[in-house]
Each structure stands twice: as structure tokens, then as C-alpha cells.
Amino acid sequence: xxxxxxxxxxxxxxxxxxxxxxxxxxxxxxxxxxxxxxxxxxxxxxxxxxxxxxxxxxxxxxxxxxxxxxxxxxxxxxxxxxxxxxxxxxxxxxxxxxxxxxxxxx
Length: 106
Hints:
Number of strands: 5
Structural class: alpha+beta
Helix content: 25-40%
Order of helices and strands: HEEHEEE
């Protein structure tokens, strides 16, 4: 995926919505619990935060990232076509009372 893809406002909106939807479904939380903190260039890096009601589900989610195949997370139109080249990195800064920061590179 190239950063210039996101220059198209419709494409960016679709990508953001699909990213949030897929992360929420995989994490088992409401879409409102997932936020995109930034999208940076390089390999298109998406930093996001998922807020869990309790710490235990956040810990389970963090553990699942170590073994997940990203094609299991990103299934929606707008993001699935990039899943084959995506990497989901370990939680940055650990878990803090039910919040997980996740970095994905496409």
C-alpha cells in the first residue's frame, strides 16, 4: 500500500472505517473503542488504540497478536487487499488499564 493511496478522500474514509471495523471485531469491542491515532508514511504505519472495559481482555488481545495471521484481522473491503503485506506489531508501551496501542504496517 502506498501513502499516496490515502490522498483520495473516499479511499481514506473507506480504509479508516474498514480498519476500525476489523480491529473492533477481532478485539471483541465496539467500534467506538477503536481509534486511529495516526497514519504515517514509510510503509504506511497505522497507530491505533483499543480501549477495553477491563484489563483481562486487553491482556488476552495482546497475547493473541503474537501468533495471529493478519489476514484473520483485516477482512473488510478497503483494508483486506493489503493484509497480505501487513504486519501487526506488539503492543507499544504495554497494556494500561484496559487500553492497548497497536501499530500496523501495510
